[in-house]
Amino acid sequence: MGLFNRLIAKVRGTSSASVLDWNEIEVELLASDLGPALVTELLAAAKKMRGDDAEAAIKEILVSKLSSKDRTISSGLPTNVIMVVGVNGTGKTTSVAKLATLLHSNSDSVTLAAADTFRAAAVDQLTTWGERIGVEVIAGKEGAEPASVAFDSVKRAVEIGSKYLIVDTAGRLHNKSDLMDELGKVKRVIEKGAPLAEVLLVIDGTTGQNGLAQAKIFSEAVEVTGLIVTKLDGSARGGVALAIESALDIPIKFIGTGESAGDFAAFEPDSYIEGLLA
């Protein structure tokens, strides 16, 4: 990404003031979706730096902005129920399938719940993925209550001793309160059948500060434990990951970088920071 290379050059005194002045650097960092608060803090710190230690000093600041919470997926329960939330269009259902593929490839038993019942295409998509992966998918009738599908899925996953149950949920944002009420209901129903191990929020990495706003809303409604950031493909706008972790202290657990099942992996903070500084 090299997001901070111009800032480092400026601090070292090796950049041209006529081209790379502080205002231009600020505009560039804001365009990367870091957010105004974090950009202001970074620039204030950078202006106090001098010389060749700039890169190490900036790296230390960036690392301090990342969450220190556990990034591994919960695995300590007999059946680890993972509720996946997010607005439509973020890649939520695809991320559910990719996560199932990753866990199944590690020889873990996985069951999927197609509880995004308001969108028939999501149920069909998840069913197709389940057949491809070789895992059971629990789906209700068209238009079924999402909470009902979630309840049946928990019952089935516990019954067969599945290590993971991944629940896809509705993502309609036509009315924020309606969606949050629905997700809260699904969460409560799940917890009647088994403890909820994780609530993972899927964020589209290209949506910038809107992604941060979504993370705040979902966190207030369903206590998000981790993030899946999609479309984090190494572009200059990859700063959103740092912005979200800095603002909310919610760890990014997985990233999606493409459409295929293999374009999904655990988030590696060190590699991410090195990419920003490269």
TrEMBL record:
<dbReference type="InterPro" id="IPR042101">
    <property type="entry name" value="SRP54_N_sf"/>
</dbReference>
<feature type="domain" description="SRP54-type proteins GTP-binding">
    <location>
        <begin position="251"/>
        <end position="264"/>
    </location>
</feature>
<dbReference type="Pfam" id="PF00448">
    <property type="entry name" value="SRP54"/>
</dbReference>
<keyword id="KW-0675">Receptor</keyword>
<keyword id="KW-0472">Membrane</keyword>
<dbReference type="InterPro" id="IPR027417">
    <property type="entry name" value="P-loop_NTPase"/>
</dbReference>
<protein>
    <submittedName>
        <fullName>Fused signal recognition particle receptor</fullName>
    </submittedName>
</protein>
<keyword id="KW-0378">Hydrolase</keyword>
<comment type="similarity">
    <text>Belongs to the GTP-binding SRP family.</text>
</comment>
<dbReference type="GO" id="GO:0006614">
    <property type="term" value="P:SRP-dependent cotranslational protein targeting to membrane"/>
</dbReference>
<dbReference type="GO" id="GO:0005886">
    <property type="term" value="C:plasma membrane"/>
</dbReference>
<keyword id="KW-0547">Nucleotide-binding</keyword>
<dbReference type="InterPro" id="IPR003593">
    <property type="entry name" value="AAA+_ATPase"/>
</dbReference>
<dbReference type="InterPro" id="IPR004390">
    <property type="entry name" value="SR_rcpt_FtsY"/>
</dbReference>
<keyword id="KW-1003">Cell membrane</keyword>
<dbReference type="GO" id="GO:0005047">
    <property type="term" value="F:signal recognition particle binding"/>
</dbReference>
<dbReference type="GO" id="GO:0005525">
    <property type="term" value="F:GTP binding"/>
</dbReference>
<dbReference type="InterPro" id="IPR036225">
    <property type="entry name" value="SRP/SRP_N"/>
</dbReference>
<keyword id="KW-0963">Cytoplasm</keyword>
<keyword id="KW-0342">GTP-binding</keyword>
<dbReference type="GO" id="GO:0003924">
    <property type="term" value="F:GTPase activity"/>
</dbReference>
<dbReference type="InterPro" id="IPR000897">
    <property type="entry name" value="SRP54_GTPase_dom"/>
</dbReference>
